[in-house]
Amino acid sequence: MTPLLEVADLVKHFPISGGFFGRSREAVRAVDGLSFHVNPGETLSIVGESGCGKSTVGKVVLRLTEATSGDIRFDGRSYRAAGAAEMKAIRRRLQVVFQDPFSSMNPRMRVRDIIAEPLQNFGLEASRAETTDKVRDLLIRVGLPAEALNRYPHEFSGGQRQRLCIARALAPGADLIICDEAVSALDVSVKAQIVNLLSDLQQEIGVALLFISHDLAIVEHLTHRVAVMYLGKIVETADRRELFTNARHPYTRALFSAAPAPRMNARKDRAVLKGDVPNPIHPPAGCRFHTRCPYAFERCRVEEPQLRTVASGHLSACHLD
Questions:
Q1: 94-117: per-residue pLDDT in tens?
Q2: Residue 73 and residue 82: Cα distance in Å, rounded?
Q3: What pTM value is reported for the model?
Q4: Residue 176 β-bridge partners
Q5: Domain segments of the chain as ranges
């Protein structure tokens, strides 16, 4: 199967100006050599604590910010250096749902115009009546009443606004939607509704998802595969069931132990990490996690571990393996 999205050795460094004449001498290593793929109709979740670089990955894939190096392919075609016309064709099939649904919509536009805007941008608009019918169908598909097309964004709740953003992403016929913390600003019950909606849409129309999140409970419910990030690198990746039952990397285990237990009286052995996340300008030598890892030994301090296969479809970057 040809991957729908393929990322190879992706690097994104943000230069820091300083010294004489504002020359850049250092850089924040937000993303430092990532490789992954998303198959058609699949959900890949990228998880990790705040500051690990997962949202930057989404922005670079969308080319909202340009990569420092590496390659990005969509449907087998590299588009990192694509021109405006080629990029426009790719963006029709590659859409995004942002974290804050209110700020990602124009508050002066009615719902009918917000959802119809992608159709206009990509030359997919037919007659006004047909466009209105399509907007109405999209509203119903995401669980909103057809009468909502004449209302403004401020007239909806947070969960309803996120449904509008999903409808807008579906409007041009997207094959892949990047969900950047798409449910983190919502209440628990609303989160469940949006996740169920995304799952239903995936089964119904086969859309693929790149789901960026720090909420492991949501990820476990929605995803097919998981990639765990730490300080700009992927440290473990596996099928959802394999990762949640047999995590190998100490950082992944610490993330799972920090997640709230589903039952109030459930006993849980917690792996408490010591110290803070290292400075991404000067990441540690060797394994980037060794400064906080309870199992670190001398090799971890001098040699960077590579992602190795530890089970079928399960890769981990740890010298313990």
A1: 999 998 888 999 999 999 999 999
A2: 11
A3: 0.91
A4: 94, 208
A5: 236-260+268-321
